[in-house]
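Hi team,

As requested, here is the filled-out complex form for the 3-methyl-2-oxobutanoic acid run. I kept the field names the same as last time so the parser does not choke. Let me know if anything looks off before we queue the next batch.

— J.
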Amino acid sequence: MKKITTATLRKMKQQGEKISTITAYDASFAKIFDQAGIHAILIGDSLGMVLQGQDDTLPVNIEHMAYHTQCVKRGVENTLIISDMPFMSYATTEQAYTNAAKLMQAGASMVKIEGGKWLVDTIKGLVERGIPVCAHLGLTPQSVNVFGGFKVQGREQSQANEMIEHAKLLEAAGAQLLVLECIPANLGKAISQAVSIPTIGIGAGKDTDGQILVMHDALGISCSYMPKFSRNFLIDTGDIQKAVELYISEVTNGNFPSEDHIFN
Ligand code: KIV
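And here is what came back:
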């Protein structure tokens, strides 16, 4: 297998090939996912919830993210490594530069930041300094207190229109990938058609260019509840390697997500 880059993912979108993505936080799982042929691994700040047992992602800091990025890097040969910038680590552009550099030096090939058009200057500055950016719209978990809970976003037409506009602005600023979380399936489709960068959905319907799941949800080992948009692939296979292969093939064939996993 060849090393996967942002150019690979862009080409996959152009050719209509689905992108499979999963979170990982350590070398052992990263190696299994890499060898199974997953296209990208995200060291998500979801580690606050699934590793640390926190209620949300807010307590996660840049040192936690850098440590787990280093761990994942040691398990990966070909997969693209994306690392989350944690809460308030990119509140100013200067903070974004300093903290993104820590994640790139820890082994990331791209950083992910949550939010809309207020990030335009940050994205431009990061890309100009050699740091590829994945944007994240919809239910952005670092804003859970603003949303008043983990709620589906973009159901109102005005909110949906605004999200499409933000997606275009983030692309124009230089974002090379866009995660869409917990939005109606028709909005996931509309945003994916409105931008030329690949979109990766989690609870965003089946028409995004790729899918991502938190590995604990995909393997049914979450210490909290199982979200509607997820599926336990381990229960169908009884083996972690086979579960990951099944996840990849179900994403590739367009069988996951099904109607059961989407929001309207
Ligand atoms: O932190 C995370 O795992 C994420 C994914 C859910 C997209 O941001």
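Two things worth flagging: Residues 157-173 form the longest helix (17 residues). The chain has twelve helices and eight strands.

Thanks,
J.
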